[in-house]
Amino acid sequence: MSRVMPGTEARLGWIGESVRRVDGIPKTTGEFEYASDLQVAGMLWGHTLRSPYAHARVRAIDLSGALSVAGVHAVLTHSDVPGRKTYGLEFQDQPVLAIDRVRYFGEPVAIVAAEHPEQARRAAERIVVDYEPLVPIVDPERATESEPLHPDPESHVSDHYLRDPRPNVLRTMRIIHGDPDARGDVVVEGTYELGSQDQAFLGPESGLAVPDGKGGVDVYVATQWLHVDREQVAPCLGLPEEQVRIHLAGVGGAFGGREDLSIQIHAALLALHTSRPVKMVYNRQESFSGHVHRHPARIRAEHRATRDGRLVCVQMRILLDGGAYASSSTAVTANATSFACGPYAVPNALIETMSVFTNNPPCGAMRGFGAVQTCFAAEAQMDKLAQALEIDPVELRLLNALGTGDTLPTGQRITSSLPVAEVIRRCAALREPDPEELPRAAIRLPGGAGNTTRGEGVKRGVGFAVGFKNIAYSEGFDDSCAARVRLHEDGSAEVHCAAAEVGQGVTNVILQVARTELATDDVRIAPVTTAAVGSSGSASASRMTWMASGAVRDACRAALVEREARGGGEVDVERVYRHRRTAPLDPETGQVGELPAHVAFACAAMKVIAEVDVELGLTRVVWIGTAQDVGKAVNPQAVEGQIEGGTAQGLGLALMEEIQTRDGLITNASFTDYLIPTALDVPPIVSELVEHPEPDAPYGVKGVGEPPTVVSTAAIVAALRDATGRELARVPVRPDDIVGLQ
Amino acid sequence: MDVLTPRSLDEALRLRAAHPDALPIQGGTDLMVDLNFDRRRPEALLNLNEVAELKGWSRENGVVRLGAGLTYTDAMSAKLAALLPAFSEASRTVGSPQIRNRGTIGGNLGTASPAGDALPPLLISECEVELQSVRGERRLALESFLIGPKRNALAPDELILAVRVRGGLGTQTFMKVGPRNAMVIAVVSLALGVDRERGVLSAAFGSAAPVATLVTAALDDVDSFPEQVAAAASPIDDVRGTGAYRRHALRVLVARALERCLTR
Ligand SMILES: Cc1cc2nc3c(=O)[nH]c(=O)nc-3n(C[C@H](O)[C@H](O)[C@H](O)COP(=O)(O)OP(=O)(O)OC[C@H]3O[C@@H](n4cnc5c(N)ncnc54)[C@H](O)[C@@H]3O)c2cc1C
Fold first, then answer.
1. Above pLDDT 70, what percent of chain A?
2. Do residues B207 and B176 lie in contact, with contact meaning Cβ atoms separated by under 8 Å?
3. What pLDDT, on the 0 to 100 scale, is given for residue A11?
């Protein structure tokens, strides 16, 4: 699908040009093959039996009923896992299939393969699991006083983590910067809370595993990082990595939710067991248990400033609910801590973050990765400070804006580009539309199509916020991306890169870089697979454009050199690109040593106009203007797309998106009850691309996917506060909070 | 799963009697969701889409007869909007264009959800439901047809043929509260009518009691009507909203709807 037919367009775009995405038309017309569309002859359907409990002991599993269902070819449990019984991104703590205990609602317990999906489901219903329900830990505040969910105290320990022996601590982190007791003339405090957001990708988890007849397996799957999947899948199958090939299947959105494994090991196990291809597709309800979510958070913040508005000290305590398994919680913890203060120069700080295990749905990566939560708290605090000091909120932010040469609370000096003051100025200068006259159509009022007001109760508010986060992986992670370029004799080229196209547009980035470097339009992208090229790293952390650009650039240049040296002919060259090295922070003080902890940063400012029906608690976001630090826009149209989508996702968290649970059980696992914004909820978004080339990055690029999500929740709620005069310290903001019930 | 597709009402009724396990399907916008989520696995479906007698609407002596197969898109037409303004406004709030093109009032009555958006506006227009089986026809007031959350008085061999409502009953409006601005199930909804000729206020709400509920009062009771309606509700806390909010919102909606209808 991602093939570009040479000659279909005169010129398909080099770096810096707005070009149509190559998968745009097939996706719009329905021709694009998503992972859920995969099909091969003779394929079986897999189905997962999941725990109905958030916490229970598994005493026994009786498969006999399931095995006797017509059409069933395999019913497998943990005892059928030939290799390692557990897997995980950072710690191998998650059972492939539950062993003696289930720790969250929806945890996989057994898997079935049958001729028809219906037979597989019916068979799964006939598996009898003898559970002994246990009291679930659902309040993260009380996790450290509860029985440990992972009894081995060494199971989640790392050298560069602060030692915290209390039960159920996933990671404790602390930054002590300057003198945390430093006093200011003015102090503002607040306690903030965020609910758990779901990535809500439209394409559910799905894939196809095909046995190769020689003991190995090919897995076609919608994922974010092929090679890290293979690293986790192969040991559980008891196979060497060469016998497991992971191929990218069409991804219907990811947003972090496809960093952890879903169907990969299960489908491969069933395929190897039955010697038949096995397809698995989660349904919508199952998908809510099929991936990790954004961490719900509770944040206590205290900001101290001088009378003239300079920040003196920030203290924050952050509690993240990691749910039942580690996933990438430890890295989310580090990010929340690192970016807690926002993009401001803060001379003194004490930031303490703890993530804990509970029996709530597991949390891990989601767009913004810890910085969303702290931005919401920090920006609310900045507004409180502005109010207390009677300073314009934009002025206050400018006064404290971080910039190149300044030092972060971790002691890391910013040596790369970070134009905070400029994004603030350029965003503030965007002209918002004048208030619309009444009467107007219902859909242009809060409550929208619901026809609830003709203007009664409606107040207008303006919000402003700034946010930032890191680009690429941090804390000493060896982050790389490979690309392989083949130059053919006819002058055309083929690029192999394992970078996952998750809808963000990396395919175009790769094409644009290759066309620019090779000075030809005739470039094709080869199928994305572990079989043909080294790891690209994850399509995560706003890193893929930077990393893939670097790798493809280097491989193209090397290929040209080689062709030159050989005097023509076919060449095939692979290169691995690395960004600058980082190192962990000091576990006691959270300070950097010689190397930085983060590679680079990107920031964004956002202004929001909202109208709120203060009697019904309904909202219409009227207009959003934003200025974002993008380094260099490879494809400006795609950058705008990322800004609009990222902003919409932050709007969802601000106004409606929350996974609700009762005793750890998800109660709104459907798109009927887990609402995401519609076209009537997302206003026109005006984007200013602020282009200051990142000195260390290929072509000066920066990642662009996350900053809009980091900042938009904070900016939207700021507008709601302005309209209502209420504190609104929790997201999603409920109508009850706006009208002041309870 | 078999799909039975009758071409006439007679055939439909005979098939219905012969196959009580075959679930009637009209637009499928409720039923197919249930099938997809594996909540139901009927032996067969009785596809009503080819039964011409269920389609369209007619008007006789002030009574408007709406066929069970009338879609929300049909209901938004200018002619019906003039006769049944609240019903037409309610139809506009349903789902998305795709759902409004497929979804029908027969299906809304069949599902009998407390959140069904067709129900409150029908209730304020003196609605009777026409039911038919091979045994004959009967008519039930909509209040008697709705017997509980997702429960109605349909017998296993009956089909919903149509509803009959009174058109042109004064001024009316419909409002629906949900946490997003389109495509949302009512957290609470309200249809309200002011009939000056007969001196009656009528309000019907959805999602604030086990069934959509009608409240009427004399025209003089305008001031106390918001409170009366809120008092008739018995809202619960659920994933979509709290009971306290629903009651609060109902008060606000009734006051605003009265204002709209009285100043029109
Ligand atoms: C995305 C989406 C959004 C939605 N939004 C809304 C909304 O905003 N408001 C709202 O009220 N609803 C909404 N719905 C629900 C649904 O669209 C409505 O309830 C619609 O009226 C159902 O009509 P249908 O013809 O599709 O019913 P079907 O699904 O065909 O049938 C529904 C039920 O009625 C029975 N039935 C249908 N016709 C007859 C008949 N003639 N005689 C006897 N029984 C019959 C069926 O057996 C079944 O039990 C939504 C649904 C979806 C999928």
1. 98
2. no
3. 53
Chain B residue with minimum CA distance to A677: B180
| pLDDT in the model for residue A655 | 98
| Pocket residue to mutate for ligand 1, from B9, B23, B25, B72, most atoms within 8 A of Cβ | B25
Name the residue range of residue A269's domain.
36-134+204-251+258-290
Chain B residues whose CB is inside 8 A of the A742 CB are 242, 244
pTM score, whole prediction: 0.97
pLDDT by residue for chain B (264 residues), tens digit each? 899 999 999 999 999 999 999 999 999 999 999 999 889 999 999 999 999 999 999 999 989 999 999 999 999 999 999 999 999 999 999 999 999 999 999 999 999 999 999 999 999 999 999 999 999 999 999 999 999 999 999 999 999 999 999 998 899 999 999 999 999 999 999 999 999 999 999 999 999 999 999 999 999 999 999 999 999 999 999 999 999 999 999 999 999 999 999 986
Ligand 1 atom closest to the CA of B25, numbered from 1: 30
For chain B, domains (ranges, CATH) are 1-47 (3.30.43.10), 171-262 (3.30.390.50)
Residues 79-118 of B with CB under 8 A from A: 89, 92-93
Q: Ligand 1 within 6 A of B23 CB?
A: yes
A563 vs B: CB within 8 A:
no
The per-residue pLDDT for A51 is: 98
Q: In what order do the strands lie in the sheet with B63-67?
A: B57-60, B63-67, B159-166, B128-133, B136-141
Q: What is the CATH number of the domain that holds A730?
A: 3.30.365.10
Query: Does any ligand 1 atom lie closer than 6 A to the CB of residue B104?
Result: yes
User: Please, what is the end-to-end C-alpha distance for chain B in angstroms?
Assistant: 52
Residue A692 near residue A702 (C-beta atoms within 8 A) = no
Does A498 fall in a domain?
A: yes
User: Following CA atoms B254, B256, B262, B264 in sequence, which dihedral angle do they give, to the nearest 10 degrees?
Assistant: -130
Q: Beta strands B213-218 and B146-148: pairing type? A: unpaired
* A497 is a domain residue: yes
* A647 lies in some domain: yes
Q: Is the pLDDT of residue A8 over 50?
A: no
Q: Ligand 1 in contact with B27 (CB < 6 A)?
A: yes
Q: What is the DSSP letter of A38?
A: -
pLDDT in tens, B128-171: 999 999 999 999 999 999 999 999 999 999 999 999 999 988 99
| pLDDT reported for residue A13 | 81
Q: What is the longest distance spanned by two Cα atoms in chain A?
A: 79
State which H helix or E strand residue A647 sits in: helix A636-655
**Ligand 1 atom 21 nearest Cα:** B108
| Residues in contact with A175: Cβ distance below 8 Å, sequence separation at least 6, in sequence order | A337, A338, A340, A349, A350, A351, A409, A410, A585, A589, A590, A591
Find the closest chain A residue to B253 by CA distance. A452
Q: Give the model's pLDDT for residue A7.
A: 41
Burial tier of A390 (Cβ tally within 10 Å: 0-12, 13-18, 19+): exposed
Closest atom of ligand 1 relative to the B110 alpha carbon: 34
Looking at the structure, tell me whether residues A105 and A227 fall in a common domain: yes
Measured CA to CA, the distance from residue A203 to residue B87 in angstroms comes to 35
A407 secondary structure, DSSP code: B
- Is the CB of residue A449 less than 8 Å away from at least one CB of chain B? yes
Interface of B with A in 169-198 (CB under 8 A): 173-185, 187
Q: Does A441 touch chain B (CB under 8 A)?
A: no
Residue A641's SS3 state is: helix
- Give Dmax (Cα) for chain B: 56
A254-274 pLDDT tens trace = 999 999 999 999 999 999 999
User: Other CB atoms closer than 10 Å to residue B223's CB: what's the count?
Assistant: 10
